[in-house]
């Protein structure tokens, strides 16, 4: 451990109102800590710049998954285990449940939260492509009140986002309209478990009479922020499913991504894998349609 705990202060007011009041009274002073699976890694490496931490772990107002008539509202404090164990999330939002199952090991899934994954904003974060294709909306809260932001507008650049001073993510809202969709999720990592993504993908499509009537594709780890591939989507929508379409869709990928070389992979590998995953997504749609 390279950090000295005596140099840090942690408070746990225990309810949302008190947390927000503290963050309002002393702006830009207190950093929220939820599961701590990102912040404590920085702490142990001696790189945690924030010295005053306010715990939002287990705040009842940030917990719970509410299944409403038209949307599923997931508390930002929900853990990956909460997501994996929720029957309706598993059935209606399989891309999110699958991403939760990829995230670290069981101990990490018991602690890491969806809100923490969003705000930590790693380009390699596994749940973010799923939130993009499901067209999630974030509910942000501060002492000034609540506001909603479409998730696609949240990330502004590498580790830069829309959260204002004194604001927390309170919940993530996802429309309940994907039951009839085909979905595809893959994570390319160094191994099957406990690996950070080299590339990850979430794909969704609605097929009617062998024609793609809606398509959404998002990739992680190929740009400073998670990306939706709108050109690929536009190419696919209206097309009849058939052999060759995967290759055509894959050819649109390179122009939309900006992968980099880093410790986990390099740009050319990431480009090749991204195109292959998009092709595989479309081929999966072909096989599903052929099997009907
Ligand atoms: C061993 C290990 C393996 C991992 N594997 C993966 C993996 O495979 N895939 C992956 O995507 N991630 C992985 N992670 C990263 C991490 O688990 C996730 O990013 C997790 O979702 C972070 O959530 P948390 O609650 O622990 O965040 P914290 O560490 O508590 O906080 C992270 C950031 O989010 C902010 N924050 C947290 N909640 C809120 C909120 N509600 N509102 C506003 N700000 C908030 C904090 O201030 C901080 O800036 C791994 C981490 C570890 C240690």
Can you walk me through this structure?
The protein is of the alpha+beta class and 292 residues long. Helices cover 32% and strands 25% of the residues. The protein is built from 11 helices and 14 strands. A 5-stranded antiparallel beta sheet has the order 4-5-10-6-7. The protein has a 4-stranded antiparallel beta sheet with strand order 11-12-13-14, sandwiched between helices. It starts with 8 loop residues before the first strand and ends with a helix. The structure holds flavin-adenine dinucleotide.
Please render the helix and strand layout as text.
Blueprint: E1 9-11, H1 16-25, E2 31-33, H2 39-44, E3 52-55, E4 65-67, E5 71-75, H3 80-85, H4 87-92, H5 94-102, H6 106-111, H7 114-120, H8 128-133, E6 137-142, E7 145-150, E8 155-157, E9 160-161, E10 168-175, E11 182-188, E12 199-208, E13 211-220, E14 227-228, H9 230-236, H10 245-250, H11 267-290
Parallel strand pairs: 1-3, 2-3
Antiparallel strand pairs: 4-5, 5-10, 6-7, 6-10, 8-9, 11-12, 12-13, 13-14
Residues 31-39, 41, 56, 62, 76, 102-104, 108, 111-113, 115-117, 119-120, 125-126, 168-169, 196 line the site of flavin-adenine dinucleotide (FAD).
Structure in a nutshell:
This protein is an alpha+beta fold.
Strand content: 15-25%
Strand order of the largest sheet: 4-5-10-6-7
The stretches of 5 or more residues where confidence is low (pLDDT under 50) are none
Roughly what percent helix?
A: 25-40%
């Amino acid at each position: 451990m390279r950090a000295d705990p005596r140099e840090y202060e942690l408070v746990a007011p225990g309810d949302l109102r008190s947390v927000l009041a503290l963050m309002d009274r002393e702006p830009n002073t207190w950093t929220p800590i939820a599961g701590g699976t990102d912040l404590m890694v920085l702490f142990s490496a001696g790189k945690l710049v924030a010295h005053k931490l306010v715990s939002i772990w287990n705040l009842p107002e940030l917990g719970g998954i509410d299944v409403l008539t038209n949307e599923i509202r997931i508390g930002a404090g929900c853990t990956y285990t909460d997501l994996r164990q929720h029957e309706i999330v598993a059935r209606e939002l399989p891309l999110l449940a699958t991403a939760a199952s990829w995230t670290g090991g069981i101990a990490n899934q018991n602690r890491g939260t969806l809100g923490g994954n969003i705000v930590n904003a790693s380009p390699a974060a596994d749940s973010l492509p799923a939130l993009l294709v499901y067209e999630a909306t974030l509910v942000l809260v501060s002492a000034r009140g609540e506001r909603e932001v479409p998730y696609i507008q949240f990330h502004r650049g590498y580790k830069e986002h829309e959260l204002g001073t004194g604001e927390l993510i309170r919940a993530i809202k996802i429309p309940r309209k994907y039951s009839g969709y085909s979905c595809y999720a893959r994570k390319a990592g160094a191994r099957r478990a406990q690996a950070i993504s080299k590339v990850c993908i979430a794909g969704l499509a609605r097929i009617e009479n062998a024609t793609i009537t809606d398509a959404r594709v998002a990739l992680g780890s190929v740009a400073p922020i998670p990306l939706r591939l709108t050109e690929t989507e536009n190419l696919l929508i209206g097309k009849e499913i058939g052999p060759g379409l995967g290759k055509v869709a894959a050819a649109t990928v390179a122009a939309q991504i900006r992968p980099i070389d880093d410790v986990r992979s390099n740009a050319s590998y990431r480009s090749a894998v991204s195109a292959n995953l998009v092709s595989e997504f479309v081929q999966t749609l072909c096989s599903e349609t052929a099997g009907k």
